[in-house]
Specification:
Order of helices and strands: HHEHEEEHEEEHEEEH
Structural class: alpha+beta
Radius of gyration: 28 Å
Helix content: 25-40%
Largest sheet: 5 strands, mixed
Number of helices: 6
Shape: elongated
Strand content: 15-25%
């Protein structure tokens, strides 16, 4: 009786293992034009509404600099709905659409009159991207170095599931108060030339599922239930015979 149970249990485990889809996840496929793809054009991120920006001011005259580095600036300056920030010692000024280097020039034009050799540390406090859909770990991810491409983002989320549509990944981006929608084919080498290959802060990446996901799940569940029913019936029969 014990031997029969072990054999049936082993058969059940083999069946469950066979139901697991082990199709490999392959991304970029085909031939690479390395001469063309070696050219990298990384756009510096621009400041958007609702961004949180950290600005630390330095200069040769420390005492005069202190006014621009009040404690409430440590958490960053929130860009309001008009694209402005309010900075102590400066007041309201428009920053939306500026890069960090352009913001540096803007600050210089306002502070060089009062500070000797001013310079700044500027960074995005909330540079984040959101990944949802057929990924191992959906979620919101903060990017500390302010630069991430689509493959790095997917890597942060643990990679795609076996049911992901690799040829149809959507990037949703907000630009000047409007949404842009772009679809990326992760299997095509031309993805490296896409303006959406490098992501921007607050981008949303949505990975669709393949059409046969639910069908595969339903078939697997049906086969498992059928086999489990057979095993239980056989065990009851054997128990009755050997009792």
């Amino acid at each position: 009786m014990n031997i029969a149970i072990k054999i049936l249990s082993f058969v059940l485990l083999l069946h469950l293992a066979s139901c697991i889809n082990t199709r490999p996840i392959q991304y970029v496929q085909g031939q690479f034009d390395t001469a063309q793809l070696s050219q990298i054009d990384i756009k510096e991120p621009v400041i958007q509404r609702a961004d949180l920006i950290s600005i630390v001011v330095f200069s040769d005259n420390v005492e005069a600099t202190a006014i621009y580095n009040q404690p409430n600036s440590a958490g960053g300056y929130l860009v309001d709905e008009k694209g402005n920030i309010q900075m102590q010692g400066v007041g309201d000024f428009h920053v939306e659409g500026l890069t960090k280097s352009q913001l540096t020039d803007s600050l210089n034009s306002k502070l060089q009159e009062f500070l000797k050799n001013p310079y700044y540390t500027i960074r995005f406090v909330n540079y984040k991207i959101t990944l949802v859909g057929e990924l191992t770990r959906e979620g919101v991810y903060t990017v500390p170095n302010e630069k991430v491409n689509i493959f790095e983002a997917i890597g942060l989320a643990g990679g795609l599931t076996v049911y992901a549509r690799r040829e149809n990944v959507m990037v949703i981006r907000e630009v000047n108060g409007k949404r842009e929608f772009a679809r990326l084919d992760l299997t095509n080498p031309d993805i490296f030339n896409s303006p959406y290959y490098f992501l921007k802060q607050n981008d949303l990446i949505f990975v669709e599922q393949t059409r046969n996901k639910l069908a595969n799940i339903d078939q697997t569940v049906a086969r498992t239930i059928s086999l489990a029913t057979t095993v239980i019936s056989t065990l009851i029969f054997l128990y009755t015979v050997f009792k």
